[in-house]
Amino acid sequence: MVNIRARNASMVAQYITKDDLDNKDITLLRKHKTQLIVSDGMSVDPFREKIEIEYLPQYYNDIPKLADYLANVFINDDVEYDMLGGKKATITVGKINLKFAPKKEGKRNQTPTDIQEKGTTVIFNRVLKLNKTYPSVEAIKADKILMGELKKTFTKKFEDNLDDWLLSYFEQQEKFFLHKQYAPSKWSPFEYNGSSFTKFFRQFIKEGLQTIDGSRIKTYEQWNPADIWAAYDMSAMKREINEAFKIDRKKAKPLPRVSKLNNLLIQYMNDSRLVGISLKKIEKAGQTHLEFFNITPKSMKISKVVNYKMNDLTFDVQNIAEHTKVTTYIRYGSPKTHEMNINLGDKKKFGNLSFNTQIKDSSAQGGQAPVYSVINLLHTQGTERSFKNDHNNYPHDIVKYGKERTKIEKEYNFVKSKTTGLISWTDFDNYIKDLYMEDLPQIAVSKLMQIDFYYNAFKNYPNDEQFWISLLHLGMKVGKRFAPHAKISD
Asked: Is the pTM of this model over 0.85?
């Protein structure tokens, strides 16, 4: 290549965005396993020395492979890449800087969760009616009755998204109905909302259940990650569950234990009469698996993390000292097997922290930990009780910040001593003041809440990996307090 700048628009951008490559190009792409990231979902701004590239987030780990590919195209230029936080990355080719950022969900017509889940019930019920599974995505597309029902489910507004979900639906029905316990002939039709088991259990939770420590379960999501239910005889099952708790409900105190309900569901699952299914979008064909949780003592723990020690955990907290970044990460294992991220959901307003889990090499979110359970775990041991997941407990303006500055300095320096990547207290102090002055108090507060959380955690559980493993279990909905369920994910 004589002039990389002159050829950039026709070379780099074309290879990233177009699918009309010749055989030689495609062979090279396949060699470096970059075809997906090159052909699927990328968009590139018009040519300049710095090119902004949006890509589908699941291809983040393929960016180094793309760099290898470009190095084989531009053999006379240096090619370097840098993987950044927030799934951002850069590849430099000579003087050209390719800046990668994941596509933001808000920029596309994202399919609502209820439509995603209702689509699963549509295809599952079609399998029940035909008493056989679909052997391929193409077979699903060929079933005009099924596709008509799915298009009706997705409505006009989201019909363009249906193709994006067909792989998930194919993998879900295959993994569930081909399991030895779950032949299509066993089940009542799946129902979504209306008289569904999910709605039944939402009402059941409202009537009152408590954990072994006496805390009340307030919502279905705090107890069970299942999105849909398969039942052998739904009406009979509901009657049995209500009958089992008839005496317990008549007592004023105490509330019935959730363990009794869980044990009843475990028996139903073991008898292949009932199963709640947690559904996750599938991105990788042929890598989907069906897992069972909270049925046996072994399935009440995540086997990959149960023996981790403190040196197997990485605390990525430097975003506390980065301008508007609000997410910190706890990574489990080397190489990483699981991750928990702690963040503020909406950076435009004051809010509380959420605790979310992610499984490595999977498109699936592991789940969100119930906040009250996180607080209970955090304060079960030790004496520090300052963390409250309530932004109103933290300074909303610079004057109030000044009054709490001494306490915050102590906490910040302690967290800094237990982690890496944080700047000096003086620099951090000035940085937080700037956030207040820039009319970004909600960002400042989210950072102060994170400092307080980590301070409580490191103080109450010094060098105690079991706390962090238990925290992950809460996010994954694994343990005695959570419902037995099956999860279909890649």
From this structure: no
